[in-house]
Amino acid sequence: MFPTLSWDTQKKALKLIDQRLLPHQVVYRKYYRACQVAKAIKDMVVRGAPAIGIVGAFGLALEADWLAARAKEQTSFWNEAQKAYQTLIEARPTAVNLSWALKRLWVKTTKEMHIKDVAALWEQEALQMIKEDVSINKMIGQNGADLLKLNSRVLTHCNAGALATAGWGTALGVIRSAQQEGKIDMVYANETRPYLQGARLTAFELLNDNIPVTLIADNTGGYLMQQKSIDAVIVGADRIAANGDTANKIGTCSLATLAYHHRIPFYVAAPISTIDLNTETGKKIVIEERNPQEITHLGNKWIAPKNIKVYNPSFDITPASLITGVITEKGVISYPQTPLNYLQESMEQ
After folding, report:
1. Which of 65, 218, 231, 238 is catalytic?
2. Whole-angstrom Cα distance, residue 267 to residue 160?
3. Which of 178, 194, 320, 349 is the most exposed place for a label (fewest CB within 10 A)?
4. Known catalytic residue at 231
5. Mean pLDDT of 260-273
6. Residue at which a domain ends, from 76, 101, 136
7. 167, 155, 144, 184: which is closest to 252 by C-alpha?
8. Are residues 163 and 201 in contact, defined by beta-carbon separation less than 8 angstroms?
9. C-alpha distances in angstroms, 53 versus 23, 93, 99?
10. Predicted confidence band at 204 (pLDDT cuts at 50, 70, 90)?
C-alpha cells in the first residue's frame, strides 16, 4: 500500500499522494498552509471521507503553526484561524468527516490558551487521527470479513481503500481482511465514471496487494448479478444520516437497487464518524456538483458535443431500506435498525 498522507514534524509540512495522477505516476506533494490544503481537497488531490477529514485537521494545524509564528496578539490569531476553518470546511460539503475532524480540533482549545500551545495541540490531535483511523479500519475490516463466505465474489464501487483513508481502507479494508482469511475469489471493481476512481485507484490498490480483481464498466454489475456471479456488494460512504440513508459516489443507489432486486447483500463500510446524527434523512444531505468537464472530457480530450448541457452530481443517496447493513468499528448496524437507535443502545450498555 502506498501511504495516502504523511506529516513532516521538522518542516511542519503535510505530504499527500496526488491521486489525480494514479495509476501511472506516483507523485507526492507538500503543503504548508490551510488554503493550499483546501485546494488539494477541492481539486481531488486527496479524496475519500476519512482521508479528507484527517487532511483537513492537518490543514488547520498547519495554519495555526504559521499564524503562531506571525500573529501579534490572540484576537488576530483566532480571527485568522476561524477563516482557515471555514475555508477547509467548504472544500467538500458532502463528506461529514471533514467537519467532524475540524470540530474535534476546535473544541479541544480555548481562546485563553497560548497560540503556540494551540498549534502544538492541533498537530498532535491530527497525528492521533492517523493512528485511530488505521485501527478503526482494521476493526471494520474484521467485522465485515465475518459476514463473507468462502470463495466470495464481491462487487465494489468507487474507491474506499487505503487511498481514501489513512491506511487499510473501509470497503477495501473488509476485502483485505477477507483476503487474509482466504475468503475472496474475485473482486469486481466498477470503473466509477466520470472520475474513474475504480479504474484508476481501486484496481491499482488491489493489484498491488495481489488481490484478484476484474475491472468492469459501471453498467455491467446488473448482468453479473443476473448471472449469479456476485455474492455481496460492499461500498464506502461519505455521510450516513441518522435513519441510515447513505451518501456515496454517484451510481451507488443504482447498485443497491439491483442488489435488492437480486437478493444480494448490500453493505456499507464506514467508521462511526461518518454517521451524522444531526442529519435526519438523506434528503437533508447536500450533494456536491462537480465540474462539467469531468463528463465532457476524457483527460484533455473532448468526447461530447461542445454546447451540451451537463449535470454532474458527485454523490447520490441510497435509502436505508436498500442497505443490508452498515459495517462499523463497533459492529454491524442491520436494517431496519437505524444508526441513531444503534448508537443510543451502545451508549446505554
Report:
1. 238
2. 13
3. 349
4. no
5. 98
6. 136
7. 155
8. yes
9. 23, 12, 7
10. very high
SS3 category, 268: strand
Domain at 203, CATH number: 3.40.50.10470
- Cβ neighbours of residue 240 closer than 8 Å, sequence gap 6 or more: 96, 246, 247, 268, 270, 274, 275, 276, 326, 339
Least confident of 3-12, 20-29, 64-73: 64-73
Sheet with 13-17, edge to edge strand ranges: 5-8, 13-17, 28-31
| 320 and 183 inside one domain | yes
Residue 186 sits in the same domain as residue 75 = no
196 & 306 share domain: yes
- 111 by Cβ neighbours in 10 Å (0-12 / 13-18 / 19+) ranks as exposed
The domain tally of the chain equals: 2
Residues 129 and 157 placed together within one structural domain of the fold: no
* Statement to judge: residues 312 and 181 lie in one domain: yes
CA dist 4 and 43 (Å) reads 15
- d(CA 87, CA 84) in angstroms, rounded, equals 5
